[in-house]
Amino acid sequence: MLIRAAHRNSELVGLYYIIDSDIFLYPHSTKLKLENFRSFAITSYGSEMIGLYIVMKHGVLLYPKNLEQKELDEIMMIKKEGVEIFEIPSLKNALGNNIHIGEKRIIVNPNLEKKIVKFLEDVFGKEVLPISIGGFNTIGSLIFENSKAFVIGYKVGESGLKIAEQVLGKRGYLGSLNAGFNFVKYCAVGNDELVIIGKDTTGIEEMKLIDYLEY
Predict the structure, then answer these.
(1) Residues 70, 45: contact at Cβ < 8 Å?
(2) In Å, what is the CA distance from 32 to each residue of 9, 35, 196?
(3) CATH number of the domain at 2-213, out of 3.40.50.300, 3.40.640.10, 3.40.50.720, 3.75.10.10?
(4) Nearest Cα to 55, choosing from 108, 3, 130?
(5) What pLDDT was estimated at residue 31?
(6) Of 54, 66, 47, nearest to 24 (Cα)?
(7) DSSP class of residue 65?
(8) Which residues, in sequence order, are CB contacts of 101 under 8 Å at separation 6+?
(9) pTM for the structure as a whole
(10) Which residues fall within 8 angstroms of residue 84, CB to CB, at 6 or more apart?
(11) Which of 13, 97, 12 is closest to 53 using CA atoms?
């Protein structure tokens, strides 16, 4: 299932929404409603751009340090649903930019602190690779992945795609969403059954996403 959406006037839906399994996180002001999801309204640093700061995958939520108490209280409500919650005390608090949790491995900004790399290995029980692809260190912003395949921003080039396929252990394609936007993580959000994309995504971009990720 595919939904086209925007938050306020922004088509960067991955900045404002987070989906993991049947859990949907969104800003308080959103008008988007999803049926059959456990839904929670949250903020980060007083911002609605929760996807920039929070990473959630496989029933584990990672949040940055120094959130306001009311924001921590909102996150603790999610913990009551059986989600594991961990603070990541990194100086790079835009976790969405710097961490990508794949099915096989986790890839992170090569400048992420070594203690954080070790912590992620312990939490997820997966290999964590600090890596730059196509000259980009903010690896989390480049990839949208489900269990079947992934799309990575076209600017990493064919050599970058080959590296990503090897590391993530599945096929992928070079692409864009939202009419040419390279940082595709912020243009799409979803799970294996549902994907939400920005309203500006072209028909060709949508068709490639549906074909490769089998929506």
Answers:
(1) no
(2) 13, 10, 10
(3) 3.75.10.10
(4) 108
(5) 87
(6) 54
(7) S
(8) 55, 57, 58, 60, 124
(9) 0.95
(10) 59, 60, 61, 123
(11) 97
